[in-house]
Amino acid sequence: MTQQFAERATNVAPTGARNAELSDLVRILEDQNEHKMDVVVSASALRFREGNVHVEGVESLITEDGVTEVDGIYRPTAVADEGIADKLRIPLAYLRRMRAENVPLLDENVNTWLREEPERRFMLRAFRGDSGPGMPPAEGVARALLSDSYKLMDNFDMLLAALDGVKQSGHPTRVTGCDLTDRRMYVRVESEEVAVQARELLRGYRSPFDGRSGDELPMISAGFVITNSEVGSGAYTITPRAVIQVCRNGLTQTKDVMRAVHLGGKQDEGVVSWSGQTQRKTLELITSKTADAVRTFLSREYVEAKVHEMEAAAGKTLDEPTKTIEHVTKTLSIGTEAKDMILSHFVRGGQMTAGGVMQAITSTAQTLTDADQAAALEALAVPALTAAAAHG
């Protein structure tokens, strides 16, 4: 399995991975935890200078592990810019244009709106930069600007709680791939021991990657994907995901998702630190919910029912496949570049049916290097099946 890792700067924790092994994801999350800084600040403590977030006048946190210096310079990610635009009600397209073309104007706009409500409070999620002894603090990364009532449910904690839930379910599984972006964590889990035949769904289909036939290997495995966002881009979710063995296409069933949202009470100003009891209760709930979801999603009955639902539409022959794909991609707001890739995968798949459109979307998703885009496209595969069958 290929791996791609992204690091925002040499002195800040790595921020990304695509198709990574579980051990690699754990290593990255542990490194990120060492650099994390979450602080509730008033607008009066925030300033923009040269397009960066400056935190000023916030009391340091002293613990047995040392002193956490909060004041410093934090370079916003694209996700943080989205949060800044949202919280200050600045049109995002305008903020992006100012960042690209006129940074002094960006500073002036953000600072003006921060001064309008100096007592308003936000949660700033950041990575602290490393610096040597006696050196000034290194520039950090501003990951997100959120509500001060945002509930911290961090990737590493969620991952461990979810894996504990998988273990408690008693089902043999394996992690088949992990992605980490500035927005989300994705962990794909599969149980090849819970597999069903799907001859009708895969009749006439060929893998666009190696040409293997769905008629020769008509099996679909049960699985699910664990997703979490630390920066306000979504809840903690477990979504059922069937895996087609001949090509490794994933079929996510988003309507059956289990979720836990990041909403809690307002936090006090200063560096945020969960109490042990609060954290323990939240993680116990996540573990329990995960175990329940796994028992459902990894049952043969569940997978057979979903395959039967898809087979009803998948066999619909398409009279004009190109026009159908045009209709489906327009209906689902899929861009031109992805549409062209889907059409190419559809032709190579050799399945001139509505099911072939679904397969083309999921196989295209596998080839995307952006994990968020890949997950979003894969989630459209089942709706695309319905749209293609209806269009004919």
TrEMBL record:
Superkingdom field: Bacteria
Name of the protein this chain belongs to: DUF932 domain-containing protein
Species in which this protein is naturally found: Streptomyces luteolifulvus
